[in-house]
Amino acid sequence: MGKRIMIVDDSRAVAFQVSGMLEDTEYEVVACCQSGEDAIAEYEVIQPDLVTMDIIMPGMDGLETAHAILEEHPDAKIVMMSSLAYEDTLKEASEIGAKAFIYKPFDRKELLSTLDRVLSEN
Ligand SMILES: [Mg+2]
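Above: query sequence and magnesium ion SMILES. Below: predicted holo structure tokens.
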């Protein structure tokens, strides 16, 4: 069975791009959320295998959202995705419990190798 992926990004263009990169792979995009608030609600319903999480979004940002999801679901697999590359941001992401960080822009190979790695960890 395909691994179920939830994409969280306020940019529809990015969500579309990620979905496109996951076409014809073992990954299936089961939800796209454009806000942290939606992501928290959808996570409960969908229980995806992995979440890709943008950081800069209006309202709750991706770090706050990831934190909220991980508090309820410590085993959630969340990959942060951002063009933000400050050391503090990376540190915060890993302290919260995010499994990986992908810098935008990224290519298909990088995305797939990161998802493969995170989903093969336990
Ligand atoms: Mg954004």
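The CA atoms of residues 82 and 103 lie 5 Å apart.
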